[in-house]
User: Fold this.
Amino acid sequence: MEDIMGSIKNVIVMMFDSWQFNYTGCYGNDWIKTPNIDRLAREGVLFENAYGNNMPTLPVRRSLMTGRYGLHEVGWGPLRPEDTTIADMCWGTGVDTAIAYNSLVMFCRKTCYARGFATAVFTRGFDNYHYKDQLYGHYTVEEFLDDPGFLERLRASADGAIVERVLREELESYLRDRQFWKKPDQHSVATNMHAAIKILKERDRKHPLLMWIDCWDPHEPWDPMSVWTGEDCPYDKGYGGADMWMPPHCACEGVFTEAQLNHIRMLYAETVTLCDTYFGELCDFVDSDGMWDNTLMWLTSDHGEPMGFGEHGHGIMGKCRPWPYEELVHIPLIIKAPGLPAGKRIKAFVQDCDCAPTLLDWLGLDIPPNMTGKSLVPLMRGEVEKVRDFAIAGYYNLAWSIIEEKWSYIHWLEKLDNKSYGETMVKMYNGADKFKQMATEEENASAKEYMSQRSVDGADQWTCTPASKVEVPQGDELYDREKDPFQLHNVIAEHPDVAGRMLKTLNLFMQDLAAM
Assistant:
């Protein structure tokens, strides 16, 4: 049944988590299978230089929903009373709003990221502590860690003891839930996508709809079906080691072998393909239901994912350091809407904070003057060539970066002693007492010192990644994007004039944002 009002415009925001842009066919990857997202790119507009401004998960969503840069003013944490979201702005306009989400960090205590949506459905995804007391017996943690020498290498690494403790708790909690999954439709990406389709089926067709679909995947754990069926990963056939679908968040040197790192990335790729499959189910429904021709679809991710050495992750596994390198901050963005050119690729810089003003523009609603993002509608229609001269990215109070057509520059803000923050996730989701029970006396001392510095609700909380560490390089960095797009060769010594100019531009821009 089609919408009864021909003038109705709908919006679907398809939000994935930790999707590295170059793990998609339409972004130039010639071996991964993402046919449904590639179809969206053929029928829509693909942005080649889209960047998240304020890492990681929650700060990006704040910028997406509020249309404001956040790097200059706020870090990890809940939506604040003064944050006005796209859902808030649709209130009283006749536009219905709905969200289907399975991201624990959007749902856990006091975060409030579903605030303002008229319909909110949480489909429990990777939720460690919800299942922590449930018995399990089908799997053991060792099955997914028992590669020859791996645990010995991990224990010998810096912070290895605390990393292993947190890792084991995560694995055990997840296995308590995962033991009952029997088929792909029970995977978290499938259940969330099906919840979204149900909302779309039951929507009030007399009103426009803003539908926000927020999928935790392809965030770790990277456990596609090959992990549970015993079949080879299709992207790494013949691998004989353990399926390390929840690798420890740590520096890779001396811990992982190259074969392990490659297999972890291939499990990630298989998870990406699984996400694409269920995104295809969503697209099929939108098409069959008649929404395809009156709906703007915004597909993106909050950030990418470090997974190894060099261009894969600058030597770390996961978002365990506040490093705004390309593999993290460069995000996929594809927009399809009626009236927009099909198959268009845009090189101009766009940012996550452009989401809310673009959606308001498309829906015909006023864009508040305090929004610092830009509507991309004129850019997609070819009315302007660009909406900004550069992009910014970073971690609040820890690192800023500026990305231009030729150069990228990283400015490190905070030089802290290298302390392990393994208790971050435990503290955030389950309280400090649980961490004290699992920790040694030495680790308790580290936890106590941590508690005095970092607060769950405070501006200094920068991540929920377990075993994360505030560790930054000693000096600023400059990279030639044309010759070195993944920022592997720092050329700041060869081009101090360029670095000085970019730092000045960055500082002035951040000052301007602070005044808005």
